[in-house]
Amino acid sequence: MGETAGERALSRIHSVRERIGDSLSAHTNELVARLVNQGKGMLQPHQITAEYNAAIPEAEREKLKDTAFEDLLRGAQEAIVIPPWVALAIRPRPGVWEYVRVNVSELGVEELSVAEYLQFKEQLATTLCLSWTLSHSTPPSRAHRCRSPLATVCSS
């Protein structure tokens, strides 16, 4: 009201990659390295938060309050770890999902499409299924499909 069309300006919403790129290299090397050192796996939000609290000292967490990285952690719904990569499914607000993966060796951040994120997740499930099957010395046959906790993912 009172604004003219010339005074209005659309502001660009920065991508997750742009928002966390700088803070990642500055603050979170310990967290990402800790996730990767656990090996391949999938983490839920409470596990991501627990790892964050264990990896970053309280004083450093205070500095990270109200930063893009804290927003990312608050919105992280899942982490997929396949060293040296950690992929994150982030839900910054209802109905909006963003997917990124971080290379621990280079501390580089890449945005992922939904299909790329699901492919990364499928790669983890396939790897876990194969390692579980091999560790149980099952002969390869149709009767002996993967019966790991991820059996529904691995049974195709």
From TrEMBL:
| Recorded catalytic activity of this chain's protein | an NDP-alpha-D-glucose + D-fructose = a ribonucleoside 5'-diphosphate + sucrose + H(+)
Q: Which domain of life is it from?
A: Eukaryota
Residue ranges of every copy of the Sucrose synthase N-terminal domain listed in the record: 13-122
Keywords, alphabetical: Glycosyltransferase, Transferase
* GO MF annotation terms: sucrose synthase activity
The EC number of this protein is: 2.4.1.13
Gene Ontology biological process terms, A to Z: sucrose metabolic process
Instruction: Extract the InterPro entries matched here.
Output: Sucrose_synthase_pln/cyn, SUS_N
Q: Which Pfam families match?
A: SUS_N
Q: Which family does it belong to?
A: Belongs to the glycosyltransferase 1 family. Plant sucrose synthase subfamily.
Name of the protein in question: sucrose synthase
Q: What species was this sequence derived from?
A: Triticum turgidum subsp. durum
